[in-house]
Design a protein that fits this description.
mainly alpha; single chain
Length: 76
Amino acid sequence: MAKSRNNLLGVGGQRKKLSRADQQGAGSARTADRKVAEDKKQELVRKMRERAEAQAATTAAEPGEQDGASPSAAQS
């Protein structure tokens, strides 16, 4: 048999070594850290969207205010 059956590198990918706490289902601090990081990211995205919407609303309102001011100035 020319093929080596002992070398299975790359056949199924690699698996992360689990700590004892992970094996027992206790979880790890890394999982909690990932959750905290994801929460911070979601909060940042929410703030950025609010700022973008406020800026877009302000930009859209400015031309309307200028157009509204011109006819009233012409009437006076």
